Amino acid sequence: MRFKTDALTAVTLDPIVAGALSLATDRDGSLKLIDGSAVTPLRGAMVRDADGRVIKTSSIKVKTPPVDDIPALAVLRCTGHVLVTPYVRDGGQVGVSVVADAVQVIEGAGDVE
């Protein structure tokens, strides 16, 4: 089950260096396609719930990766077509997987190192 939304924010715990990003691949090394598009995982970014708390078991992938570095502790807005897929991990922990067209920094803190 997937949900479409236009009001999703995330936070970066670590800086994201644009030049170090790479397309997601499957275990066999082939490009991972979601709805026919290659995606780039934003490792270090986590989704926030409706109360602003970070969902630790969350992942964000974008179809258009950022061109600029994103500092640690930046608040991001997922833009364009945004799909959220909730899931339950072993042990009953709820997680979410997000695929967005892109992300936009709406509040930044710190410098990318």
On the 0-100 scale, what is the average pLDDT?
A: 90
Low-confidence stretches: none
User: What's the CATH first level?
Assistant: Mainly Beta
Question: What's the assembly state of these chains?
Answer: single chain
Q: How many structural units, i.e. domains?
A: 1
Global shape? globular
The number of E-state strands comes to 9
Any key phrases for this structure?
single chain, 113 residues, mainly beta, OB fold (Dihydrolipoamide Acetyltransferase, E2P), seven-stranded mixed β-sheet, two-stranded antiparallel sheet
Secondary structure topology:
Blueprint (H helix, E strand, L loop, with lengths): L2 E3 L3 E4 L20 E2 L2 E2 L1 E2 L3 E3 L10 E5 L12 E14 L5 E14 L6
Parallel strand pairs: 7-9
Antiparallel strand pairs: 1-8, 2-6, 2-8, 3-4, 5-7, 8-9
Structure, explained:
With about 110 residues, the chain is mainly β. The chain has a single domain (about 5-105), classed as OB fold (Dihydrolipoamide Acetyltransferase, E2P) (Beta Barrel), CATH 2.40.50. It contains no helices and nine strands. It is globular. It starts with a strand and ends in a 6-residue tail after the last strand. The relative contact order is 0.30.
Outline:
This protein has 113 residues and is an all-beta fold.
